């Protein structure tokens, strides 16, 4: 009975194609405004996620160093790290160097790695088969127009007083992409044993990349803090994204601020819905009062109005979801939307949204829709049945 009643009211109030077109245009405007807010939040979350993912590809979850400079990872240290939740570890040697190739030069960070350990920690498979091999970041190789097999020279200072820098003549054996422009421009990889020999540090290291267990009930930041406290002096442990901490904090603040400011767009879109409801009211006011005169309880009509608002809200939310997916696809594939990595750290943006983001935006949209509906019903209720029946319509 209720379904037939709702169906009858729908046929009465939505019996013209113009009404349907106006409704769809209003819903599209509301959906577009919601998609703008969601996309803005999603881009900022995507930036944060992409940045942390890129940093994990270069440095794992955390970086272990020593206040004493170069160090040895003894068995008891490894056991202590494992006891405190370190799941994987990649030991490496890192040094500053000057890269030269085809009359081009640039300062770089040379990392001497064990490719198996590095693969386990970062997921990057470096093609380092011999001491003559070198792997570059994609951005550096593209800027210098290098191809596999090209010559590449590194000038590394040994550190001893009066010692001349040593030249390493290498062959480009592979490229690596971290997803962060700065890393792809500066990081150069060679075998660990080669760099240790050049620096004269024997088997000592100056850095270790750590991957922490995901079984802990603490979040990653808390895990890293607890690990640093447990290890004590002389060890220093920092999160891999620590160098970009201020940038990530700024993004988080801007995300909240922009989400609040963009509520203005939702309010404007609500006025479009209001315009549709006003148009529907002006066209169908006589039918409304005739139905009331024939004995239809006002409560039933209010229920129909509420369901109509919920339907418009739900339709707008569905449209917003599809518009966000469309925008994300364009953002990922359109060449004109590629951003300069020198300025924004990463080359591409993407939209990443959690259910909490959807819930927050759609809930606020529902509140605005209900405020509009309650205001309209109050105005309609103030009008008497007799005055409504006497109205003339153009």
Describe the structure.
- The protein has 394 residues and is of the alpha+beta class.
- Helix 2 runs antiparallel to helix 9.
- Strands 2-3-7-4-6-5 form a 6-stranded mixed beta barrel, surrounded by 4 helices.
- The protein has 14 helices and 9 strands.
- Helices cover 57% and strands 18% of the residues.
- The two termini are 34 Å apart.
- Strand 2 and strand 3 form a beta hairpin.
- The chain folds into 2 domains: 195 residues, no CATH class; 178 residues, no CATH class.
- The protein is elongated, with a radius of gyration of 32 Å.
Tags for this entry?
394 residues; 57% helix; 14 helices; 2 domains; 18% strand; 9 strands; six-stranded mixed beta barrel; alpha+beta; elongated
Short précis:
It contains 14 helices and 9 strands. The chain is an alpha+beta fold and 394 residues long.
Largest sheet: 6 strands, mixed, barrel
Q: How big a fraction of the residues is strand? A: 15-25%
Strand order of the largest sheet: 2-3-7-4-6-5
Total beta strand runs: 9
Topology summary:
Elements: H1 2-13, H2 17-59, E1 62-66, H3 75-83, E2 86-101, E3 104-113, H4 115-122, E4 133-137, H5 138-144, E5 151-156, E6 166-176, H6 181-186, E7 187-191, H7 192-199, E8 207-212, H8 220-231, E9 235-239, H9 245-261, H10 263-293, H11 298-333, H12 341-344, H13 355-381, H14 385-390
Parallel strand pairs: 3-7, 4-6
Antiparallel strand pairs: 1-8, 1-9, 2-3, 2-5, 2-8, 4-7, 5-6
Helix pairs in contact: 2-9, 2-10, 2-11, 2-13, 10-13, 11-13
């Amino acid at each position: 009975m209720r379904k037939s009643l709702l169906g009858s009211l729908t046929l009465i109030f939505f019996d013209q194609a113009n009404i349907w077109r106006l409704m769809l245009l209003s819903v599209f405007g509301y959906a577009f405004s919601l998609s703008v807010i969601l996309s803005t939040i999603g881009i900022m979350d995507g930036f944060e996620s992409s940045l942390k993912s890129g940093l994990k590809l270069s440095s794992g979850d955390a970086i272990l160093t020593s206040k004493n400079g170069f160090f040895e990872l003894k068995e008891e240290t490894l056991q202590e790290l494992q006891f405190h939740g370190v799941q994987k570890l990649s030991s490496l040697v890192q040094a500053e160097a000057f890269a030269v190739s085809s009359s081009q030069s640039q300062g770089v960070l040379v990392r001497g790695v064990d490719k198996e350990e590095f693969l386990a920690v970062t997921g990057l498979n470096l093609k380092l088969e011999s001491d003559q091999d070198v792997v570059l970041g994609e951005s550096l190789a593209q800027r210098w127009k290098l191809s596999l097999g090209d010559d590449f020279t590194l000038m590394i200072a040994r550190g001893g007083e009066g010692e001349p820098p040593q030249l390493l003549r290498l062959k480009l054996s592979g490229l690596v992409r971290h997803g962060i422009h700065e890393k792809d421009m500066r990081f150069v990889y060679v075998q660990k044993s080669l760099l240790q020999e050049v620096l004269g540090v024997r088997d000592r290291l100056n850095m270790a990349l750590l991957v922490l267990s995901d079984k802990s009930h603490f979040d990653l930041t808390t895990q890293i803090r607890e690990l640093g406290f447990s290890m004590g002096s002389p060890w220093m442990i920092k999160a891999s994204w620590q160098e970009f901490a201020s940038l990530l904090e700024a993004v988080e603040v801007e995300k909240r601020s922009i989400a609040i400011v963009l509520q203005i767009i939702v309010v404007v879109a609500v006025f479009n819905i209001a315009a549709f409801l006003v148009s529907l009211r002006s066209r169908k006011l006589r039918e409304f009062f005739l139905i009331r005169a024939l004995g239809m309880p006002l409560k039933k009509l209010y229920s129909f109005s509420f369901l109509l608002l919920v339907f418009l809200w739900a339709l707008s939310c569905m449209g917003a979801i599809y518009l966000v997916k469309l925008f994300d696809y364009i953002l990922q594939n359109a060449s004109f939307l590629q951003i300069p990595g020198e300025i924004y750290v990463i080359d591409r943006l993407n939209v990443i949204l959690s259910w909490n983001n959807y819930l927050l935006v759609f809930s606020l949209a529902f509140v605005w829709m209900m405020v509009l509906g309650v205001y309209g019903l109050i105005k309609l209720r103030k009008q008497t049945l007799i005055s409504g029946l006497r109205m003339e319509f153009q």
